Amino acid sequence: MTAKKKTAGITLIGVDHISPHPKNPRKDIGDITELADSIKASGILQNLTVVPAEAEGEYTVLIGHRRLAAAKLAGLKEVPCTIVNLSEDGQIEVMLTENMQRTDLTLLEQAQSFKQLAFDFGKSVEEISKASGFSESTVRRRLKIAEYDAEKISQLEGRQIKLSDFDDLEKVKNAKTRESLLEYIGTPTFNWKLEQAKSEEAKEEKREAWRKHLTANGLKEFTNYSNSYGLQSVVSSDLNSDPKKLPLGDAEMFYFSWNTVMLYKTVDSAEEQKAKSKETAKRAKMEKAVEKLEEAFKTAYMLRRKFVFAVSEIRAKNRYKEVFKAIILSCFEGYAYDFEAEDFFENPPDSEQGYDFSDVEKDFEKHEYRSLWRTAYACLGDGDRLDCFSWDGEYERNEQLEEIYDILKSMGYVISDEEKKLLDGTSELYIKEGSK
């Protein structure tokens, strides 16, 4: 079937003579069933834009890939087209500009389109903003995404990724660490890994400040705690303190232990040092394990706390009866003496019907559900010192923490694999009985 003129500027072209553009930035046209049904009922309401192909009478789509596929599915033989003549670079630029204006593009597809316009066609942020309709701030944020390794970014397709995830990723200063975190973005593990990376960076910055001050005063750093036998502790300080305010005394060496810096001096002979080495190494292993466990449970608490404060008013209102009841039961069971909480709800005084939530509901209507939720959560006694290990780093079940997680999960919390392992004792951070 040959092309024929219909009206000025519009040409009817047979669908068998039109091919998708091989360099279309959007590879997946998605589900076209509804569009095909619409075309069957009403026809094509917006013409396609095509360019002449090498073979005479053949054309390539610039704008309208989904419409072409849907038209074929609907059984159309011809489609209305506008024919334009553009260089290959011009064709790609047109497709990119049209592509990034679509509302159903993924975040990663948008970022890739912006990158091509900026780096391949030299478009400024202002020009991309005007062409796409996005603010300059949004364009910059998407271009930031495009700076990551293209292969790693391509592996993220299909995940439910938010722009705020990449904003959070930028809070990590080390580029290699950011790249390594890409593996987890869009998964329940991402927030865990992110918080740990941020915490470690903040800690290392404080260590570096101490390191510069102490080495400038002639002290040497040792990194293997098992080599600290034969040394006597002079003084220790929290990393958050001002290094210049710590009296150094006769200290000769320093060692970093989690959030603490410890200063030492030599006191024992070589023979005495050797005698103490085994005991010190054993103690070092235990202390290191406890430090890592403390850090892990602190990270877990930060994730729980962030979730609690992110719960919306609607979710708090929709779930308050079941969740708040669970919270109250948990509190009563933990702190009330000679009191059967479940009996109170099922058989309260002067009632044969069980506890009536109607009065509670009326009271709740006077307040903000979200605030009530946060207050109720606070009653659970959650905190960064709520953990599942003993003084020597062995696993100890914590039913209170398990109840807290059950309540959070009923509100939509997604527990990470690391938290599950900490909770059930399978984490490699725990010291196994008999291995000390």
The number of helical runs is: 17
Radius of gyration: 32 Å
Estimated structural class: alpha/beta
Query: What is the total tally of β strands?
Result: 10
Folded structure, characterized:
The protein has helices at 33-42, 65-74, 88-99, 107-120, 125-132, 136-145, 150-154, 163-169, 175-181, 190-216, 270-310, 313-335, 341-346, 358-364, 369-378, 399-410, 417-424, and strands at residues 4-7, 10-14, 18-19, 48-52, 59-63, 78-83, 220-221, 231-238, 253-257, 260-266. The longest helix has 41 residues, at 270-310. Helices cover 50% and strands 11% of the residues. The chain is of the alpha/beta class and 436 residues long. The protein is elongated, with a radius of gyration of 32 Å. Helix 5 (125-132) crosses helix 6 and helix 10 (190-216) packs across helix 11 (270-310). It has 17 helices and ten strands. The strands form two sheets. Strands 1-2-6-4-5-3 form a six-stranded mixed sheet. A four-stranded mixed sheet has the order 7-9-10-8, sandwiched between helices. The chain folds into four domains: 4-94, Conserved hypothetical protein from pyrococcus furiosus pfu- 392566-001, ParB domain (Alpha-Beta Complex); 102-187, Arc Repressor Mutant, subunit A (Orthogonal Bundle), CATH 1.10.10; 201-267, no CATH class; 290-424, no CATH class. The relative contact order is 0.06.
